[in-house]
Automatic annotation (TrEMBL):
Pathway the protein contributes to: Cofactor biosynthesis; adenosylcobalamin biosynthesis
SUPFAM superfamilies: Tetrapyrrole methylase (SSF53790)
Assigned keywords, A-Z: Cobalamin biosynthesis, Methyltransferase, S-adenosyl-L-methionine, Transferase
Protein name, entry field: Precorrin-4 C(11)-methyltransferase
E.C. code: 2.1.1.133
GO molecular function: precorrin-4 C11-methyltransferase activity
Name of the gene: cobM
PANTHER family hit by this protein: COBALT-PRECORRIN-4 C(11)-METHYLTRANSFERASE (PTHR45790:SF4), SIROHEME SYNTHASE-RELATED (PTHR45790)
NCBIfam families: cobM_cbiF
Enzyme class: transferase
Amino acid sequence: MTVYFIGAGPGAADLITVRGARTLAACRVCLYAGSLVPRELLAECPPDARLVDTAQLDLDQITAELLRAHEEGHDVARLHSGDPAVFSAVAEQMRRLDAAGVPYEVVPGVPAFAAAAASLKRELTVPTVGQTVILTRVANRATAMPEGEDLATLGRSGALIVLHLAAKYVDRVVEELLPHYGADCPAAVVAYASRPDELIIRGTLDEIAAKTKEAGVLRTAVIMVGRTLGAEQFRDSHLYSPERERHVC
C-alpha cells in the first residue's frame, strides 16, 4: 500500500489536479480535514471507501489510521488543503511513516496564495518592480517562528510578503511592516479564495487592517503586501522581447 499526500487545492473542488483526482478515486481509505477540504471531493472516492475526518484527531490518532490502512493493505488518500509543500503539517506525518516503514508519495496542489493572486488578477513577480515572494506567517499560540524570520526582519527586503494564518493578527502585521513598506504600499486580503463566498479586500497598508476587521475576516485568508500588487508602469519582460535571441541550437 501507499499513503498519498494530496493537495486538495485552496477551496474550489475543481481546483484539485487531475493526478490528485485520479489518485483519490483509486484509494480505499481517505483521511481529510473536514473543516478545510470541500466535501464535494469525497464524491471522487470509491463508493466503499472508508472516510475519516481528521479535524478533531491529533497526530497520534492520524498516524494510527494510516498504520491501520497499511496493515489492511489499502492505499490511503491523505487530503490536505492547498499544497502539501507549505503550512500543511505533512512533514511530521512523513517522519512517522518513515519510522514505521510505510511508503508514501506527495501529489502537489494549488496553494492558497496562487488562488488569491488569481482572484486579484495579479502577477506577483513584475519586471523591475519585484521578483521575490516571501511566504510566511506570524507567531501566535501555535509554533513559534525561528530566529530571524520575524516580520520586522523579513520586511527589510521590501519583497512581496504573503502571510498565511495571520488575518486575526492584521494589526500586528501592519505595525511591523509599515516602517519598511510605507503607508501607501498596496495591500490585499483574500478570504476563502476560489470559493463561492470568496471575499477580496484591497487597500493601502495603513488602511488594510481597519478594512479587514470591518469585514469580519479572522481566518481562512491570506494577507499580501508589496509594490507588485499595484504595479502598472513597468518594463516588459525579456521573455517575449523582440530583442531576445530565439535561435534554437
